[in-house]
Amino acid sequence: MSIRFDEAALAWHLTGPGLSYVVGVQDGLPRQLYWGPAIPDGAVASLAREWREAYSFDDRLHTGAELLGELGPQFATPSLQLRHPDGAKGFDWHYRDHAIEEGDAGGDRLAIVFTDRDLTLTLHYRLWDTGVLDRWASIDAGAPVEVTRFDSAAWTLPHWGDYRLSHLSGEWAGEWQLRRVPLPVGETAIGSRRGNTSHQANPWTAVDDGTATETSGHVYSTNLAWSGSWRVMLRRSPQGRVTITGGAGHEGLRWTLREGETWTTPVSSGLWTDTGFGGASRAWHEHLRRHVMPTPEEDAPVLFNSWEAVFFDVSEEKQLPLVELAARVGCEQFVIDDGWFGKRLADNAGLGDWWPNPDRFPNGLKPLIDAVHAKGMTFGIWVEPEMVNPDSDLYRAHPDWVLNQQGRDRTELRTQLVLDYGRPEVAEWAFAWLDKLLSDNDIDYVKWDHNRPFTEVGRPGAEDPDRAYFEHVEAVYALKERLRAAHPRVRIEGCAGGAARVDPGILRYVDQVWTSDNTDAGDRVNIQYGFGQAYPARAMGTWITDEPTGFNHRTTSMRFRFQVASAGVLAVGGNLTEWSEAELDEAAEHVAYYKRLRPVVQHGVQYRLGDPEREPLTGVQYVRGDQIAVLAFKTPWHCNRPLPPLRPEGIAADSRWEDEDTGETHWGATLNALGLPLRWGNADWDSAILRLRRVA
Ligand code: DGJ
């Protein structure tokens, strides 16, 4: 990893593992001059953007811009939009200086500083040993300026003949659907106007020229570390150049930087690989685990969660039998979900009143926690600190604490409103009760939920009400950080009605996330396939639950449900009191088996074997040291369609492998040629797990 400054060319060469990124100041503008396979330092001086050849009608100044602007012939949707008090717009770049700083873990940093009027704008770069480049920007306002857009970065792609976009979209209970579509000429926007990352779109993108595969080809991929509203705009010009600009906030927000204020964007990260979509995902996984997530090296415990077992009917009396059975099947952590506090008998009351419901927990949480500990499990608890039900003591005392606008209805969704965390007293209140809950009780795990998007965002009387969008996210990050510092033992699960808040921003503060409220194992094969494009298995919460679920009324075997859930951080979420003795015994076997798989699944390198949208037989292969685990799934299939065997990835032909369950040995060459010896029957919704250890 290094960053070298070529003074004559006024360019900076960032080099990482096999890659180069060159940014220079040309024609007064900061431009990306190169991004791709490594080039020698000597080549930097010869890099020039093609703006010199453009016509008067062209938006030539946009080419390669590190932030798309609005001065001169720049006609793309800008990355940065400013309005000065005298009516002038934009930022006229004047290079001032730069600073290079050596960071830990190869995270060298570069800051390039520009000025215009009373503003100082700094472009920040941090190249990691994972090949991921973090970029963000900051403005120091020496005088007030109105901002309507301030993206973290614009990324310019190579000049290819064609472009294809991969992105993730979906809905509640149907997140993580991978879309792979031609990128049209024009502007394609993905984003969220909801105040959270959203179920509907995720800020992860991957762009190739239409020829990349799972295992080969050039892929450029970006993501945004922000858990509020966001927008990523992909622009393909008629001449065939592609720029991706992305950042926090949605269209139409505006706020004014005060004199003396510094505004810093969140991080936009980008990576290039020539190892296809699989390689891009593995690079993201490695990066998030090594440089973003707080505890990736820990084995996440197998937990029991009460939600689908009893929904809101959470009481000491009803939980005690579940504690017994959760321990019996091998769970290591017992988590009570929604329903334990205030008057929370359903979703219409209680949010905000964070004390145990006296009818349900007459002696507080201690007896239940003691029972959980007596069974050798740790204890976890559900909270939703950013929300309030109007039917709560909190709301009756502080109706002004919610996001709202003067004279407008306060739209209730799931009968709840969003607390305004931008108010310091609200964030302080949240810390106080969470701190007390964790100090008074022996709690190891917090499931932090967030069950609605924002509406009528504002703060009556506030000068700059749109800031509430940004302040909320920053305050949530700060609160989680503060809680982690005060309670270093406690682990946090990020949840938002499933996965409405999964992004590299929140992953800095949570140990794992809830992947989807849809726990149907058949649907989960696809959901997990999409999740894995951007995020690692160590972060992916996966439950086995009772079937049929309300989503599609499908019934599958316990084995299939367990094996699908074993592809991430396994949890048990069914009503164990209704399971037969035989089912409990079978569950205990699956949980014990998962514990043997866990190190490879949670900490291994992931290869996707096939695409479940298109193929009936797919799998996920995890590799760690000399161990391989393959989890394979068979979705409905018709007898006259071909069902080719599943072949592993990355196995040397002359290697030998022992099946850890049967003791059989296999040559790498035969596994590659003939496929994996998976043991399963002929049923639809079938599954198999193979554990191999390299013996030669
Ligand atoms: C939504 C979550 O995704 C569920 O797992 C559960 O915790 C409910 N909220 C509780 O209200």
Q: Would you kindly provide a written description of the structure presented here, covering whatever features stand out?
A:
The protein is α+β, with helices and mostly antiparallel strands. It has three domains: 62-291, alpha-galactosidase from lactobacil brevis (Beta-galactosidase, Chain A, domain 5); 303-604, TIM Barrel, CATH 3.20.20.70; 608-695, Immunoglobulin-like (Sandwich), CATH 2.60.40. The strands form seven sheets. Strands 6, 7, 8, 9, 12, 13, 15, 16, 20 and 21 form a ten-stranded antiparallel sheet that branches. Strands 22-23-24-27-28-29-30-31 form an eight-stranded parallel beta barrel, surrounded by five helices. It has a six-stranded antiparallel sheet with strand order 32-33-34-37-35-36. A hairpin with a 5-residue loop joins strand 8 (119-127) and strand 9 (133-141). The longest helix has 23 residues, at 581-603. It is globular. The model has no long low-confidence stretch (mean pLDDT 96). The structure holds (2R,3S,4R,5S)-2-(hydroxymethyl)piperidine-3,4,5-triol.
Q: Would you spell out the secondary-structure blueprint of this structure?
A:
Blueprint: E1 2-6, E2 11-16, E3 19-26, E4 29-37, E5 80-83, E6 94-101, E7 108-116, E8 119-127, E9 133-141, E10 145-150, E11 153-156, E12 164-169, E13 177-182, E14 186-192, E15 201-208, E16 219-224, E17 230-236, E18 242-248, E19 255-257, E20 262-264, E21 268-273, H1 276-292, E22 303-305, H2 307-310, H3 316-329, E23 333-336, H4 366-374, E24 378-383, E25 387-388, H5 393-397, E26 417-418, H6 424-440, E27 445-448, H7 467-486, E28 491-494, E29 512-514, H8 521-534, E30 540-544, H9 558-565, E31 569-572, H10 581-603, E32 605-609, E33 617-624, E34 627-634, E35 656-659, E36 665-667, H11 668-674, E37 686-694
Parallel strand pairs: 22-23, 22-31, 23-24, 24-27, 27-28, 28-29, 29-30, 30-31
Antiparallel strand pairs: 1-2, 2-3, 3-4, 5-10, 6-7, 7-8, 8-9, 9-20, 9-21, 10-19, 11-18, 12-13, 12-15, 14-17, 15-16, 16-21, 17-18, 25-26, 32-33, 33-34, 34-37, 35-36, 35-37
Helix pairs in contact: 3-4, 6-7, 8-9, 9-10
